Amino acid sequence: MVLQRHYHRKKFKCRCNFHWPTIKILFGFILINFVSTYYNEQVTPITSELDFHLFPQRTIVNKFNSIPEVRKYFNGRIATSCVNPNVPQTEIESKFAMSPGNTIQLSTLILTLPIMMMISSAATSSVGSAIAFTAPISDQDLNQFKVIHTLKTVGQLTLLNVYQSYKHFSDSKNIKDHLIEDLHKTESEFRAYFDSTMIKVIESTPASGECYDISLLIRCLRVLSECYEPDNNRKWKDKRELEYKCQKLANKRNEAFHCCIGINSIEMEKEIEDIKFLIHDILSTLIGRFPSASSAISILKKNIDVKISSILAQPLGKLEIKSYQSHKYLRAEIKPYKIKCKKYGKIKILDFLSGSDSLHDIKLLYTHILVKQSNRHKTNVPIKCTDIIKMASSDSILLINSETGGGKTTNFKFGIDDWADGGHVMNTEDYDFFFPMMFRNQRICSVAQLIEELIPNVKVHIDSEDIMTCIADPSFTVLFYCDGYDEQNQNSHKLFLEIRDLKEKYDHIRVIVTSRPESVKQLYMNRGDILNIEHLQILGIHESKREEFLAKYHNELVSAGKSTQSTDELLIFFKGCSAHHKDLYRLPINLVILSWIWGEDIERAKSVKSAAGLYKTILEINYKKLENRIVQNHTPNIDFGELRDMINLFEEELFYESLVSLRHDRMYLDEQGIKKLREVCKLIKLPFSELKGAYLLTKLEWLADLDESLELPHKGMMDFYAAKCIASKLSNGDESIKGILLKLYNNHRQFKVQKYQNVLQLLGGILAMKDANLVKEHGTEIINLLAEIDSTNYSQWYDLYSNFDLNPSTADYFGKLIAPHIELQVMLDPIKDADVEYLSTLIQYVNIDSVEMNISGTEMLAKLPTLIDVLRSKECIIKMSNIDDIHCDLLNFSIKQNTKIHIDKVVIDKYQNHLPFLSFCEYISECHFNNSWRELHCAAPDISGCEVGKLWTATNTIEALPKHVNELYLGILVDPTTGKAQDPGLAHITQRYPGLNKLVVQIKAGAMTEHLQHLPDVTRTTTVSHNITISECTSLLLSHLSDESHIQWAVKTARKLQPLRDYGHLYIPRCSLNMEQVCELADGLKDAGVKVSGVGVTQRGQSEEQVQRLLDGGVSCANDDDLSSIGYW
Questions:
Q1: CA 1121: distance to chain centroid?
Q2: For the whole prediction, is pTM greater than 0.85?
């Protein structure tokens, strides 16, 4: 039992923590004492009930030195022995009578018991330095440990000898030198083969490989196998081959390490015998592969047999037991830890607004969010939110950033909840441990302490050093998910640096970090010398999912009795909102707040049009409730004006303390701030508990070392309070925003405006709602401060602009201020109708060279024609991508002659009418008429007026094709009456397009082709390396083959259309022939003399034997996905 003292405002509290291993020992000693009275103070041996040697020596020494009573009993001799390697171990064992066969004197027990109690008490009362009292090790555990030890030692020795026989270089050269010097691999190729941990071992240990573990030896064998025999992958799957057997041995090692269940002696002997048999099989196969080494391998066999016999006969050493036991305990905690992690999947929906304590499953409320890559070379690539964790890689930190309320923390909670459920949604099933880390937590400063906090049972059995040893073991796959980098403090920063260093050392560790945009640059600077940053940006909830999200949350409020309003009416209102208004609700937190406001006051919900307006409405509703409670419960005769003045004093102090907390990167109010708030309440004679609840201050559970600690429920609310403080000071005469902020710093060099980005955006909205004169007085400074953060950030200016409720005077004023900071090239990916509305207003104040729009998704851009008219008047180049059927009519209406428009990609699936807007385009990179090309049903629209890079189409005349094309994928139409293939004039295609470098022609099965001529030769030469070039010729697609008759037709047609040179490829897309018929087709093509570089067959469900048969016959077999590089199937 451990007594801990906590002083709380002159109150003494005693907390009792029972250390159960110690209690067990105590009862054991009592029993021994009872027995000893009958046996002349002699007791039978105690061998494994308490293993003193497993105690962490450093911790024991510290505790002995800090406990004066130890010297009284043993004069410090035991403490010295614990760290002095020269002191015989027998002296320690005799003192404590713990070695096998010794007897324990009752007098020794009486002396030992208080020592144990003192050590336990001291250990438990000190954070992060607890002594691990190891539970008994069963015989079954020891048997399992012997199996692991056999694999780790004898298995490693076997694979080492395979590696040394396999490699084609001497022991004086390591595998890195061999790959680079002998096989001419590059440094980057070498690093692609091995993870960072393996590379360190290769570079720092003997070249012979004797220090390589099983995982590294297997990787070396795979790399050498790939380099020596590029087509050698089959050997790793053939049960007769050496490579397969080596992999099987490595798999046995992994299975043994992952097993938490002990085995009896018979099972152990059988397991070790199986290992011995497999090792003999490997060595026999090795002799067959390398006969010259037969004598050395035979000697090795005998040595291995001796080692295995020794392992079976001798007990394991204490260090080996300690290592294996630590792994066992940590792995045994995975299941109970997952059960504990389920609490992360239960959230209190709107608890900070509605006061609800009911728990809800996050899976019922979670809605998919929009995510895109934002790396230097992979910008604006959309990512499924369920694939986020899968993108965590071995050589980089995965950064997820979004603005306040974007869904970072919700995604974090959903990730760990999914891991606890099996990980099938967020792809977390491969991780043994998922460790969540909150940057705002000030109490934890080391990885060992974090793990002990998350899995308290671990520190009972394993000391901190062994925890870190287990985490470093590749047999554990670990994910650290670190939430809120922008909220870090001194301790959490120290913890993150340790996590980062672990990530640099060990490839089995993955790290994900979430942050707000203003802290992204700081993370890049702190990523270390080795790691890269894989950057993802959360864009919010897709417009098609917002109604679903809103309905989920409001229905939960109704279920919890916190709203009596209609969800259907809420959705009707939301559907009728303007594009600008709807875009405000792309952020999940704003939709959450809207659903709560709707439940409280419908009219207020309808009037909100900005983020600042949302937070302002929360305060207004809560103030009204507070006013009613004070009148009813405390001061019924108070004047409402006087009450307002009194509460304003509390608001003023709260808002200032929020700004101070933000300056110190805190999400909570410190003791001094809370003391000031209490003093204000005492002055105005209002209860602190009432005001605390009305302004959403909640108890901070994890910061137990503070007398009282309160936090705001969301960073957005703290930013709003801070912005309210600045607005109030500006109203009272303060001259500048920056001056107000600088007063918070003793050293002005510490001031970083990035920290206040969201505050400045909310401040603009507050000033706009408060006084238009204040907007004009301080607007320029807001713009200049935001420009210091990132003058080129389009979304930053849009968020600021959107906070003005589109008030004509303020919008016009700020439009003129923002315009100089807008880049000449604007990229909107993806474009939204709110962007269109904003840009249409803004562009009148600035000259823009080009606007790039990704027109994807289902949102109809109703205001796009207005924007295009403005851009045309400015002679601005419009670049569009991902145009689909939805927008064809709109673009036909809005794009007119003399519009400078470039289209990156247009995909038309069903639209069959004339598309004049395409003819007005100056250039189209890719144009897909899928309804014409894929099914060959009808001719594609006439686009003869423009230039196209790549075109997928079908037509009955080449005159309808564009005036220029580089790559042409042309479908031959069939006359529905006669069944004849219509010749569009292929014989003249090279004369019409002298720059054509690729031609692919498609014909549907059954078409009459006797009248067609040979396909023209169109050749493209591609350089794939410095000395290798590939020539690609005209290709043919014979599509929709479905029965026996089509086989002869395909052979005849392919021979008829054979170009003078070989076909580049002959593909058979959308084929329903069985494998035997496909082989018959391949034979027929060969017999007919069809010359083709490769044959591609798109067919699902092929067995391994069928695929091998095709490969043996020289036919390349592929499925639909493998052919996607051409882009039309």
A1: 25
A2: no
